[in-house]
Design brief:
The protein is mainly α. It is built from 7 helices and 3 strands. A hairpin with a 7-residue loop joins strand 2 and strand 3. The protein starts with 10 loop residues before the first helix and ends with a helix.
Length: 146
């Protein structure tokens, strides 16, 4: 375990560390995605599909215009990684669903994030549990979605 700082870190110091970790994790994710012929945004979209998600919902999750999502989904659909389905409650709404191949691809991408896995391997079981609890406490405040 690393030494505890002699002082309580400021919010600015914590934000800087969270940003650095987020950037490093995103770069690792993007590199793993590229090895599977995916852009980082295609992989991010695929990672969001834990069930059917409306196209507009994906635009919100990806923080982009709905027209951009159409192109991303078109490319993933052409590769057999996702499919569009009509929403049972409103046939005008198209939901995007990961195929078995899409779920397996994103599983492999996550498994191949070597820098992230190596960093997490430096933590023992108790440290991982503590980190998980702390991140879970932060999550609700960080996931304000319109």
């Amino acid at each position: 375990m690393t030494a505890t700082p002699a002082h309580t870190p400021t919010k600015a110091q914590l934000l800087e560390l969270v940003a650095a970790l987020g950037t490093a994790q995103w770069q690792d994710f993007a590199a793993a995605a590229a090895r599977h012929g995916l852009t980082s945004v295609q992989a991010k979209l695929l990672a969001q599909l834990k069930g059917p998600v409306p196209m507009r919902g994906l635009a919100t999750l990806l923080v982009c215009d709905a027209s951009n999502v159409t192109g991303i989904v078109d490319r993933l659909e052409a590769r057999g990684l996702v499919r569009r389905e009509a929403d049972p409650a409103d046939r005008r709404v198209k939901n995007v669903v990961a195929t078995d191949e899409g779920r397996e691809t994103i599983r492999r991408v996550r498994a191949e994030m070597q820098a992230t896995h190596t960093a997490l391997d430096t933590l023992d079981e108790d440290e991982r549990a503590t980190l998980y609890r702390l991140l879970e406490r932060l999550r609700p405040g960080m996931e304000h979605r319109a």
